[in-house]
Amino acid sequence: MTDWRFMARQLARNPLSLMGIIIIAIFAFLAIFAPLIAPIPEGHRDPYMIPRDGYSATPRPPSEEHIFGTTQGQYDIFYGVIWGTRSAFRVGLVVIGIVVAIGIVLGSLAGYFGGLLDEIIMRITDIFLAFPALILAMAIVSALGPSLNSVMIALIVVSWPSYARLIRGDILQVREEDYIEASRGLGASSGRVIIRHALPNAIYPTLVMASLDIGAVVLTAAALSFLGLGAPEGYADWGQLTSFARNWIVGPQGDSLKYWYAVTIPGLFILFFVLGWNLLGDAFRDILDPRLARR
Amino acid sequence: MELRSYIIRRLLLLIPVLFGVTLFIFGITMLFSPIMRASLYVTDLRQMTNIGLVIETYGLDQPFWVQYGTWLGQVFSGNLGWSKVVGMPVWDAIWSFLPATLELAIFATPLIILMGIFLGTQAAAHKDRPLDHGTRVMAIFGWSLPTFWLGLILIMVFYGLFRGLLPPGRLSIQMDMVVNSADFIRYTHINTIDAILNLNGTVLLDALRHLVLPVITLSVTQVAFIMRLMRSSMLESLGKGYILTARAKGLAERVVVNKHARRNALIPVITVSGYVLAGMANGVVITETIFTYKGIGWWAWQSAVRLDIASVLGFALFNAVLFVLVNLLVDILYTRVDPRMRLGEAVQ
């Protein structure tokens, strides 16, 4: 498709979006080659559980054995952040994937058929959008019991309404176009008109929102894990690694930055992961919105 | 359409939304077995020995709609359940923790709005120049920052490196004693305002020193959000014909930017103020947790980690009602600000 080639060229031209692509590519590399970069120790059962080197609470500084040091409970920070990349991708992609799917189905039904169905679906989205996202997610996670799956379910529950609304709006816009009328005139079924004609022309804003949202979803998931409502203890997860560092932010008098590595490193991983997706999403938006491109 | 009938129509539309919100919240509690829900009503361990009686007393084995009706009646009479964390009714807990959070919001809100609008305007006025690039990079970093991590880094620097400069908590111990003494009248429970009303400078200064870091932590993401919005809105506004006219008649660039362009560029910022408040509500939970700043967010976190469902859901319900009302207010304000939106022209 020439569209995609045009988009690729635009993305490569803009230094900020190029940076976004490079950041995401590096993270993808870390996630795919995690077993080679941070090898699973001999006899370690679950690779997503961070191996421990002792049980002492006090973090230990970077050394040859633990290049990023160990955090509270002697969990290896390097192993945790590398395998945590996989957790971040999983949460972001699974949640956004499901949410986009729900949004497409409900949004196109509401937008294309309108009437009572539209009214019902939109009033339901109103209900979910009435809550601040993190607070609703917190309530759902504590009701389901803290776990990574609860976090993902909660994020799906809080995120789907925006997509349903966005897609509904786009469908409403293209519904009146001549080519939709034409294909209907040729006897195409509603399903065919939606899937073949309406959706492909309404999907771009959704893609922009999705790439911006992967960052936001990972950020909220990290916040929930940080608050102690996410991954089980010892699971490779950036938010949890940050929360392990909470008791070790300020070192002893005279050496107050003693434990800097415990909090700084996992936080930087979250920051750059989210930054990468945001840069990418911004670039998509600039390219796809011709009103902005002219400026 | 008259403004009054617009407001009435919007108020009527609130009913199904609020009905749905309560139904949803109640639906979450119904995920639990009657025994677990009974424990929400237990305030004394002795009651646990006869849990069947509790279930029967509160009708926890009745059909869904009967229970929903009972529950809704309770909610309307101000009974949201019992907060185990602080040992008082949820409704009382919300009101006792609210002033601390309001204090954060009182300082964070103007900071967010003024900084966001100022930076956004400057970036747009210097488009594609270093100032623009600088603020844009700052904004995208600010937008990507994990709030909890920013807070921890600030703690590392200010509690550690510059020990004692900006202390943790809401007040230092001595000031806490002053505030709770008989001579100090607590009008609002908002420390800074009470200090001003009591003409007590030391308490005011102490309260302000404690507020600096939480307010910064709470504001950064939102400043970035407003700034980005303001920049693009200003760019659109600067491209309009009347700007060309203003420039053509020889007005100073400063006047063109600040008077002609900015006024119109502010409209989108007003429409998102509901989102900003929601963003702040999310931020408050994290900020207060990190700084052990005992406001409503800290209480919600305590309740969530101790799986105190009544409190968490009460808090969520409180927030939902608050935001539905704020968004209504914003929409009404919007019709006042943008004359095109007045009298139902928006419908077309």
Protein described:
The complex is a heterodimer of chains A (about 300) and B (about 350). With about 300 residues, chain A is mostly helical. Chain A has 13 helices and two strands; from the N terminus they run αααββαααααααααα. In chain A, helix 4 runs antiparallel to helix 5 and helix 4 packs parallel to helix 12. The two termini of chain A are about 25 Å apart. Chain B has about 350 residues and is mainly α. A two-stranded antiparallel ribbon of chain B has the order 1-2. In chain B, helix 5 runs antiparallel to helix 6 (about 130-145), helix 10 (about 200-240) packs antiparallel against helix 13 and helix 13 crosses helix 14. Chains A and B meet through helix 5, helix 6, helix 10 and helix 12 of A and helix 1, helix 6, helix 7, helix 13 and helix 14 of B.
What's the alpha carbon Rg of chain B, rounded to whole Å? 24 Å
Q: What is the beta-strand fraction of chain B? A: under 5%
In terms of DSSP E residues, the strand content of chain A is: under 5%
Q: Note the quaternary state here.
A: heterodimer
Helix segment count of chain B?
Answer: 15
Helices, strands, pairings?
The complex is a heterodimer of chains A (295) and B (348).
Chain A: H1 2-13, H2 15-32, H3 34-37, E1 70-71, E2 75-76, H4 77-113, H5 115-129, H6 133-144, H7 148-175, H8 178-185, H9 190-202, H10 204-226, H11 238-244, H12 260-288, H13 290-293
Antiparallel strand pairs in A: 1-2
Helix pairs in contact in A: 2-4, 2-12, 4-5, 4-7, 4-10, 4-12, 5-7, 6-7, 7-9, 7-10, 8-9, 10-11, 10-12, 11-12
Chain B: H1 3-29, H2 34-41, H3 51-57, H4 64-76, E1 82-83, E2 88-89, H5 90-125, H6 130-144, H7 147-161, H8 173-179, H9 191-197, H10 201-238, H11 241-248, H12 253-271, H13 273-290, H14 296-305, H15 309-337
Antiparallel strand pairs in B: 1-2
